[in-house]
């Protein structure tokens, strides 16, 4: 998960055709009115699907929750606050229907993070579905506007402080940062489960990435030390190639880039890592 800053829409306006956003906002307003009159919300599903190009214009076709690209898998526009009946909420809550066409409630998600599924390899169940737990259930919003008082348990990629709470072990498993307080530890734990960040396929991918990063770091250190004694331009070029590889891995558009960033930062005992990456 990386911090996604898109609410002011400046970037989207630059990338997408002129008037695209204005036209979409008109469609969204119309859908909102029809749904408020009692028309089935699913009849207007195309409206939020139509917003996908805007979400994709930010960091490409990478899931905002798990950071996978999965080119052959369809991505979805997830409603961060679910638009339909919430799970595990008593009394029954029929969902944040008033946010169904509000782009600020949209998150770009793969189907694995969005839908409830079981991982048969490590016997874990995950997927966001219609879960939206709060730290304090008494603050649950039942009408438009009241959601500002809610404190969601799920980490939100559009909240910078939330993303900072997520960390990883070197074996690729997700965890909270060491300094997280009890509430935040609980938030990270629930988010890992709901977004299925501990899915075996993701852990294996991160392990593989860790091996590549480790090799690049070992090579870079060798070239760094060799250049210190030989001052050879070719050695310096090789060192810079390795640096480039590490910089690409932590770029926000790369798969598992938060894991890569945390992994590289964990090697700060190397002078050049402390200098370039911290
Ligand atoms: Zn995902």
Please give a quick description of this structure.
The protein has 278 residues and is mainly alpha-helical. Helix content is 44%, strand content 8%.
Identify the overall geometry.
Answer: globular
Terminal CA distance = 19 Å
The ligands bound in this entry are:
zinc ion
Structural class: mainly alpha
Quaternary structure annotation = single chain
Strand order of the largest sheet: 1-2
| Total strands | 6
Strand content: 5-15%
Helix proportion: 40-55%
The H/E string reads: HHHHEEHEEHEEHHHHH
Radius of gyration: 21 Å
The total count of helices amounts to 11
Can you tell me the residue ranges where pLDDT is under 50 for at least 5 consecutive residues? none
- Overall pLDDT metric: 93
Main sheet properties? 2 strands, antiparallel
Protein model, in words:
By secondary structure, the protein is mostly helical. It contains 11 helices and 6 strands. Strand 5 (166-168) and strand 6 form a beta hairpin. Helix 8 (200-230) runs antiparallel to helix 9 and helix 8 (200-230) crosses helix 10. It is globular, with a radius of gyration of 21 Å. The chain starts with 9 loop residues before the first helix and ends with a helix. Residues 63, 65-66, 68, 109-110, 112-113 line the site of zinc ion.
